[in-house]
Write a sequence for this structure.
């Protein structure tokens, strides 16, 4: 993968400092230097101590990333919402695990992406999962196609510059049509899976807005995260007395749906390598859409 920049007046400095300014980490610089990548200035290979001038063209050629032999390969379909040289964004179906674990090494998003990369014969074949979803949560997931793209998107996430929106069906009609839930979340001492609101937990903020009140005492809500804790939406909605439909781990009923009614519906971000805004949307999965239509007032 090749990335190019042109040097401006404020960029006049040594190549190493220029690359760091562009978000290229010390680790990526070292890997490029010692594992087959190159640094070019105006088409000529240079060392990182090269002094840059206004108008110079800097080219970073990342070393090839070979596929992980420990990750199995599956050739199953991906619902691709967006793809460019740096990122792949998909709509994850209900029931598909994001990444393998000791208990599940079979079909996952990661194994399907690996299969897709091999089919397309991409230069870089390492699967960089940037965002994950629970097995029974559907919707938008983002995968980086090289280590630099992964690192840069990680910076966006840490600075809350990746806008993610979710839709959920929750039990009960919320009194306020919109609100902010600010409640710290910690791991439950009685479970390795379950989380809970606790004073000693990490700061956690969820914003919600009611889309529509439905029959059977259900609310269709849109949510956005100001932090990214495990099970954050599920924990917060349960905490305020409105657990997700189907989410029996946090007090929801499975009478209408046999899994938590949660879907990641959209992403919006400024592309860290092109500067263009990217926005993708994923429609509600069939089971949630059917329930919305059946319970519409």
């Amino acid at each position: 993968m090749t990335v190019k920049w042109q040097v401006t007046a404020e960029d006049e400095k040594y190549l190493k400092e220029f690359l760091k300014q562009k978000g290229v980490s010390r680790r990526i610089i070292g890997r490029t230097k010692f594992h087959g990548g190159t640094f070019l200035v105006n088409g000529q290979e240079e060392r990182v101590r090269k002094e840059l001038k206004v108008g110079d063209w800097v080219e970073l050629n990342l070393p090839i990333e070979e596929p992980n032999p420990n990750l199995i390969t599956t050739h199953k379909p991906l619902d691709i919402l967006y793809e460019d040289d740096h990122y792949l964004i998909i709509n994850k179906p209900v029931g598909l695990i994001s990444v393998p674990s000791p208990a599940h090494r079979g079909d996952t998003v990661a194994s399907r992406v690996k299969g897709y990369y091999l089919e397309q014969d991409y230069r870089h074949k390492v699967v960089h999962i940037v965002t994950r979803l629970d097995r029974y949560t559907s919707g938008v997931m983002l995968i980086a196609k090289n280590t630099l793209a992964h690192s840069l998107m990680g910076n966006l996430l840490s600075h809350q510059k990746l806008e993610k929106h979710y839709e959920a069906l929750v039990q009960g009609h919320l009194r306020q049509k919109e609100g902010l839930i600010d409640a710290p979340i910690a791991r439950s001492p009685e479970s390795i899976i379950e989380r809970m609101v606790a004073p000693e937990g990490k700061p956690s903020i969820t914003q919600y807005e009611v889309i529509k009140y439905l029959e059977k005492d259900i609310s269709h809500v849109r949510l956005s995260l100001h932090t990214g804790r495990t099970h954050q939406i599920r924990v917060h909605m349960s905490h305020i007395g409105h657990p997700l439909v189907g989410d029996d781990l946090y007090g929801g009923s499975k009478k209408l749906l046999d899994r938590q009614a949660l879907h990641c519906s959209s992403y919006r971000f400024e592309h860290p390598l092109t500067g263009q805004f990217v926005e993708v949307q994923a429609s509600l999965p069939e089971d949630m859409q059917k329930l919305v239509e059946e319970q519409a007032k």
In short: The chain has three domains: 2-61, 65-159, 164-264. Residues 109-120 form the longest helix (12 residues). The mean pLDDT is 94. The CA atoms of residues 99 and 110 lie 5 Å apart.
